[in-house]
Amino acid sequence: MKLRHSTAIAVLLLSSFVLAAPPKIISEFSGKVIGVSDGDTIKVLVGKETITVRLEAIDAPEKGQSYGDKSKKALSDAVFGKNVTVKKTGIDRYGRSLGFVVVGPTEANAKMIEDGWAWHYKEYNNEERLAKLEEAARKAKRGLWADDKPLPPWEYRARQRAPQVESKAAAASGQYWLNTSSNVRHNEKCEHFQKTKKGRLCERSEGKPCGICGG
Q: What is the CATH code for 27-146?
């Protein structure tokens, strides 16, 4: 019984270790950072090739979010114009290289979390060291944690996709409103539906979709 119990504990400890282990590094490359798209994506010039790198294990505020510009600036200050080493962990669905970005003695991924300019992206990474850095940043209210409840970027992206769902609902009911002044089409759930000074009911094929409701 004791042996079986000890074996079970060993298995659990091993499982925890595996889950907490950092992603496997499959290759490395070095180059100069020539662009910073936002707080978690950069462009690295390697020879004559420009490689887009999505920083592993973090998720930074999107451009349209609060702290989006400050997060981008923080990453720019850390890496732009500098030679970095990228420890590649894979490729994401957009074809970007995933990896840890190292400049000098500093890992930019961890630094962004530590300074409060990015979330630890726990859905894809569960390293304890990064979780602790986020917890410390939260308690110290560093960066975006100055807000009590900052909106996670994955929730922000979900909300941005919501108009597409509303547009499908409108398609089922066939209710659309065309602002004949701007030629913008609104679905029935939009705040501008039948509220413009000039307009009429229309088909989904008319006009251009509203940037808010998706038309």
A: 2.40.50.90
How does pLDDT run across 92-141, given as a tens digit for each residue? 999 999 999 999 999 999 999 999 999 999 999 999 999 999 999 999 99
Residues annotated catalytic, as ranges: 54, 62, 96
**pLDDT score recorded for residue 113:** 98
Residue 181 three-state SS: coil
Model confidence band, residue 64 (pLDDT cutoffs 50, 70, 90): confident
What is the residue extent of each domain of the chain? 27-146, 153-209
Length of the chain: 215
Q: How far apart are CA 53 and CA 37, in angstroms?
A: 10
Query: With helix as H, strand as E and coil as C, how does 98-163 read?
Result: EEEEEECCEEHHHHHHHCCCCEECCCCCCCHHHHHHHHHHHHHCCHHHHCCCCCCHHHHHHHHHHH
N-terminal to C-terminal alpha carbon distance within the chain: 66
The whole-number pLDDT of residue 174 equals: 63
Among 91, 87, 90, which residue's Cα sits nearest to residue 101? 87
**Interacting residues of 67 by C-beta distance below 8 A, sequence separation 6+:** 61, 117, 143, 144, 147, 150
45/31 Cα distance (integer angstroms) = 5
